[in-house]
Write a structure and sequence with these properties.
- The chain is α/β, with parallel strands linked by helices and 393 residues long.
- Strand 9 and strand 10 form a beta hairpin.
- The chain is globular.
Length: 393
């Protein structure tokens, strides 16, 4: 007997299991240390967790405003005003969502119509392309390459045209851990203005930057204030990835439509977590600078350890990740083969960066998460001690 199951939505029905879930499952199956998926192995800031508990016990637990608690929307506007000089009206230019992915989905579905072209940069986060296609959009893919992963005029000139409706831009960039400098942002802004393009900016890693690298929101570049949708994430800012509290910031004409999409996705978000995030965003600069300092130390610990084992590490400028370019090692395997080998033979999980490409992938780069305790990183390094020598041609 035939059924209609064969005609289920192909955008999603034909998608494979994500590499994040596949490698995390392999880590569980092999009792491996998971340096693949991007989450810390500590519970997060205690005072913020206590604020959530207090709000749950003594606060309001019914449907909050669809747009988010007023106190959180004000806190978001104040926070971005302080850190980036970005002036936002909390009531007309800020919305709270159930995570950064929902924020991005709301933005994409608000902007993209059938036949619209959307510029995306590979390596590309896995949720972007299915949602663009569900909206009827056509992704136009740009290939970024190691070791610098930078933008240039030739690549933008090759994809921007009269059909371009939007560009989806991740900065700092996961997985390559690049924090884009002003000159790249100004170049992208020039093309957005020339072709009347809306920029959807995935900036969830905005506070996780290292050394002298500073995050510059694209919305603050001259000419971009009215054509940018900025997405942030409390989960990344406070290392509370399970809370799923996202931010959408945009000029009123853009935010109004994104809010209508949000209304029919999740509608609203847990009020106790919103209250705790509002508290967290008001913390002193010392908290955010200390968080970066701690992550920098973990980055450097894993970097030094991998380099001592012979891995060519590409310096991480931001995010929870660093990448290793295997190409100089002469290994007889791709990044995907390498990741499957080390999770099975060495009990350490990583992510092949080729999984972030749909076309013409870079196949020599592997991503490791360093947002872990010292003991976790040290044990992983011990296990990987022979992973290079054991596979040389």
């Amino acid at each position: 007997m035939t059924t209609k199951s064969a005609s289920l939505n192909k955008v999603f029905a034909d998608l494979p299991v994500t590499i994040f879930e596949a490698m995390s499952q392999a880590a569980r199956d092999n009792n491996a240390i998971n340096l693949g998926q991007g989450f810390p192995d500590d519970p997060g800031p205690e005072d913020i967790r206590r604020a959530a508990a207090e709000a749950s016990l003594n606060g309001y637990n019914q449907y909050p405003s669809m747009m988010g608690l007023p106190e959180l929307r004000q806190a978001i506007a104040t926070h971005y005003g302080h850190w980036h000089g970005l002036k936002l009206d909390p009531m007309s230019e800020v919305m709270v969502t159930s995570g950064g992915t929902e924020a991005l989905t709301s933005a994409i579905l608000a902007v993209v119509q059938p036949g619209d072209e959307v510029v995306c940069f590979q390596p590309v986060y896995d949720s972007y392309l299915p949602i663009i296609r569900q909206a009827g959009g056509i992704p136009r893919l740009v290939r970024l390459e190691p070791p610098h992963w930078r933008l240039n005029q030739d690549m933008l000139k090759s994809v921007f045209n009269s059909k371009t409706k939007a560009v989806l831009f991740n900065n700092p960039l996961n997985p390559s851990a690049v924090v884009y400098p002003r000159e790249d942002l100004e170049l992208l802004a020039r093309y957005c203005q020339e072709f009347d393009v809306i920029a959807i900016c995935d900036e969830v890693w905005e506070h996780v930057t290292f050394d002298e690298h500073k995050h510059i929101p694209l919305i603050t570049i001259p000419g971009m204030r009215e054509r940018t949708i900025k997405v942030g994430s409390a989960g990344k800012i406070f290392s509370l990835t399970g809370w799923k509290i996202g931010f959408v910031c945009a000029a009123p004409p853009l935010l109004r439509v994104a809010a209508k999409v949000h209304q029919f996705l999740t509608f609203t978000t847990a009020p106790n977590l919103q209250a705790a995030v509002a508290y967290g965003l008001g913390k002193s600069d010392d908290y955010f600078l200390s968080m970066r300092k701690d992550l920098t130390r973990s980055r450097d610990r894993l970097t030094k350890g991998l380099e001592s084992l012979g891995f060519p590490v590409l310096k991480s400028q931001g995010t929870y990740f660093l990448t290793v370019d295997l190409s100089p090692l002469g290994l007889n395997e791709s990044d995907t083969e390498f990741c499957w080998r080390i999770v099975k033979d060495y009990k350490v999980a990583a992510i092949p960066v080729s999984a972030f490409y749909e076309q013409d992938p870079v196949t020599s780069v592997v991503r490791f998460c360093f947002a872990k305790k010292d003991q976790t990183l040290d044990t992983a390094l011990e296990r990987l001690s022979d992973a290079v020598r054991g596979r040389k041609r």
